[in-house]
Each structure stands twice: as C-alpha cells, then as structure tokens.
Write a structure and sequence with these properties.
The protein is an alpha/beta fold and about 220 residues long. The chain has helices at about 15-25, 65-75, 85-95, 150-160, 205-220, and strands at about 5, 30-35, 45, 80-85, 100-105, 110-120, 135-140, 145-150, 165, 180, 190. The strands form 2 sheets. It has a 9-stranded mixed beta sheet, with helices on both faces. It has a two-stranded antiparallel sheet with strand order 5-8. Helix 1 crosses helix 5 (about 205-220). The longest helix has 15 residues, at about 205-220. It starts with a strand and ends with a helix.
Length: about 220
Amino acid sequence: MKSAVIVFPGSNCDRDAVVALKNVTGKEPALVWHGEADLPDADLIVLPGGFSYGDYLRSGAIAGRSPIVNAVIKAAEAGRNVLGICNGFQILCETGLLPGVLAPNTGLNFVCEWSTLRVTNNQTPFTSQFEKDAYVSFPVAHHDGAFRALGDDLRAIEDEGRVAFRYVANPNGSTNDIAGVLNRGGNVLGLMPHPERALSPLLGGDDGVRFFSGITNSLNAA
C-alpha cells in the first residue's frame, strides 16, 4: 500500500502519521506540502491533526481552500481512500467531502485524554480489523471536536450506517456520540481521536496498530 500525508502550516501530527504508516506498511509515506497542485500515486491520503493556519477563521477553514485540497477532493471522488484525523476531519467537513461541522467542545475547554470508542461499522477499509461493537481506545486532543449535523444530514449519516466510531463517554458533546464519520462511498473517514498516537502499550495503548494494519490489509487485497 502506498500512502501520502498532507502537510499544512501548523500541522503537528504529520510525523506521527508517517511513523504509524511506516511501522505498519514498511514503506515511507510521501509528504505533500499544502501548496502543491498534484498528489503522488497513493492508495491512502492522510490529512493529519494539528492547527492548520493557526485555526484562524475556524478550524480547517483556510486549509480547506489550499491548492492541494482540490487534488484530494478529486481523488476522493474517484474512489481513492482519504483519512482525516482531528484537524484533518475538520478540513474534510470544510471541503464538503463529509457532512456536518466540528464545533467547540461543550464547556469550551481543550480536551486531552484517552477515549474509549465503540466500532459501529466494521464493513469499511478503516475498520475491518475490528469486530462490530468492539471497544478501542485512542487519545483525543482538541478544542473544536464536537461533531454537529442536523436534519437530513444527520438522518442520512445514521440511516446509511456512516458512523464508524462512537464515544463511550462523550468528551466533547458530539451529536449522538459520533467520533468518526464516513462519506456515502465509504472511502473517506473523518475521525476526531488519534489512532496514530496509539501504537504501543508504552504510549498508553496499541489499538492504532490494528487500525492502520486493517487499512493496509484491506487496500492490499483490493
């Protein structure tokens, strides 16, 4: 599996994503600067966490209009797999690749802790390594992490099985405890928690290894 990690000014989890992907795939991901116009050949495109452009205007708003994002949108629409983690999730919502918005946490506090999630859809490349309704632990670190969707958008997300993960103890006030959302095609995932920070028991847990190995196995078999 070939992968690429997009780097924006203010990204701070791009190297974490590179380490996770290299450890699991054995291949060095390509790092792509936000000002580029084209993507390399990659089966998986990762938009990492951080504070792109300092979160000015709103989290992900400026990054969602970077030159490289046009190529990401075209790749997603062509069926290539895209993963947005934390700030990457915010960017995907800003582009319209995913519905909804990421709003400030309930209580307006920055949340930094380990969070238990329930796998609600394991029929995707991103969740294939887990049993349905299994529990996994990933850390969260965000201020604007409350997923909000209303009306038809929320009904579609729920009715079409596009919630990939839900919080067991909701840390931010997300609607319906939603922690991760898929697009209709199932090839784009926005996830607020950080699987790339869960690679070893020494770091607090290693469920991130299964997350990334599941993606690798699914895409290698495709």
